[in-house]
Amino acid sequence: MRLLLACAVGFASLFAQLPAQAGLFDDTEARQAIIDLRARVTQNEADHKAQLAELTATRTQLSDQIEQMRRSLLELNSQLEVLRVELTRVRGGDEQRAKELADLQRSNRDLSEGIDERLRRFEPVTVTLDGREFKADPAEKRAFDDAVAIIRTGDFDKAVAALNAFQMRYADSGYRDAARFWLGNALYGKRDYKEAINTFRNFISTAPQHPRAAEAMLAVANSQAELKDARGARRTLDELIKTYPQTEAAQAGKERLAAIR
Questions:
Q1: Does residue 74 sit in the same domain as residue 131?
Q2: How many domains does the chain have?
Q3: Is residue 219 domain-resident?
Q4: Range of the domain at 246
Q5: Is 155 helix (H, G, I), strand (E, B) or coil?
Q6: Per the CB 3.0–4.6 Å rule, which of 36, 53, 84, 232 could disulfide with 224?
């Protein structure tokens, strides 16, 4: 439209100048000028339309590209949401598996500790008794300790039964000599002096170097004295003083011997 107005103004100017310059231009030249001007106007309009068409095509192409990008973004957002949901599910599954694994490890640890504890109950332990060291099963050690503890309560009948049962069950025990010694004491406590003498003598004959052998010999003499066997008691005390002269039992035997005489 602006181009047409410009052409119209050009024509008006041209016609306004024609009377003043009539001497310079003839009719043929004037017509040719008009034809040239119209051709230029037509060309300008064609160029303008071509540019307008090109701009329209470009805008359409850009609109299509923008729409395609928008659809791509929507599709990408949809995929990201799916991935987010899947990641959340996977993380939840991993947390559950991690918890299950931790529970399993804790259960295995507790089970292992329980098994170790049970095994320890059966593993031999090192025992030091009367200057001697040996291995004993936990149950064996417990049975001996319980039997000796009964003696300290004064229930000698029960103590005799417990020590006899111990010797039958653990015939080759490292407690064997100590069990005989304490059995003799339990028999003495229940006033079964004859059996006490037999037990102490059996103990002395099988373990003459035992740290308690001198005590056992003194106990034999005391049992004989309780049975009114003064002669036998004196013989035993003489043997004690001769065999174990440096022991406390020998010193006590000397005092006991003087009393018996």
A1: no
A2: 2
A3: yes
A4: 125-260
A5: coil
A6: 232
User: Which of 87, 114, 142 is at the close of a domain?
Assistant: 87
Does a structural domain hold residue 181?
yes
pLDDT, tens only, 229-244: 999 999 999 999 999 9
Query: Cα–Cα distance between 223 and 233 in angstroms, integer?
Result: 8
C-alpha of 243 from chain center: 62
Phi-psi region for residue 162, left (φ > 0), alpha (ψ -120 to 50) or beta? alpha
Cα separation, 72 vs 60, in Å, equals: 18
Buried/exposed code over 228-256 (b: 16+ C-beta within 10 A; e: otherwise): ebeebbbebbeebbeebeebebbebbeeb
State the pairing for strand pair 132-136/125-129.
antiparallel
Please check whether residues 151 and 79 belong to one and the same domain: no
The Cα–Cα gap between 28 and 180 comes to: 162
Residue type, 242: K
pLDDT 10s digits, 9-46: 444 554 455 454 444 446 788 778 888 888 888 887 78
Residue 11 has a CB neighbour count (10 Å cut-off) of 15
- Dihedral, CA atoms, 201, 134, 149, 193, nearest 10 degrees? 0
Sign of CA dihedral 102, 103, 108, 114: positive
- For the chain, how big is the Rg over CA atoms in Å? 63
